[in-house]
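WARN no homologs supplied; continuing
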Amino acid sequence: MKKACVIGWPISHSRSPLIHNYWLRLCGIAGEYLRLPVEPANLDQFIANLPRSEFAGCNVTIPHKERAFELVTPADELTKRLDVVNTIYCRDGKLFGTSTDGEGFIANLLANAAQLKLQNEKAVVLGAGGAAMAIAGALLDQGMAEIVVANRTFSRSQQLQEKFGSAIKPAPWENRSDVLADCALLVNATALGMKGQLPLHINLSRLPASSVVTDIVYTPLQTPLLINAAERGNRTVNGLGMLLHQAVRGFELWFGKRPEVTPTLYNLVARDIDPEYAA
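OK structure emitted
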């Protein structure tokens, strides 16, 4: 039986087992995907033991993404730039790591806002952590001309500019509402607005009516940012689709078959997040 897992600390919140075990059943693969709590002090040993374990690989979530990058071989050029991994797989006894957050983000956008033009446009990204880095890299690969990055710690935004070049425009956090003019895409890549976290305060009055607004937060499915944007007529894309699409490549690497993100899967996970969700 093939096995994979997701590791983090804590990890009980992860919906990845629901996603991957659904695909395993659908594909008729004898396999299992588990949720494993791994303390930071035990991470190095866990990853070192992967080639000799029952697991074909694993997903990596908070707070392990940066340390995990240092323990594996980056599988592609974008991952080398990001310095983080969220997916690890074994090949011939060697461990490779990649980041699928960026491709999951783009796939979610294309699936839910097909009219959005990315090439030669401006985006505003709130946050400068690992998810923001992956998103910025993916947007630049799509031809985005300018990405304004507003983060509560300004130096983190500057680090993204150092990593990706002059297309990244660091902005002070207090200016986050002022930089929205002329942007085609607004991305919340922070935890602000998530259930149990502080709210995201932002004034959308300067945001063009044609802009798409997306949030990587998926608990709740419709964050206050998305609700406010929809009320003023902006197209919105929630974060659940990114979670689903970023899982596709890992499943293919571990289990040998590329799965699809379908409305049935979306509804399954959405109901797990919000029992009152109705398709």
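The domain at 2-99+241-273 is CATH 3.40.50.10860 (Rossmann fold).
OK
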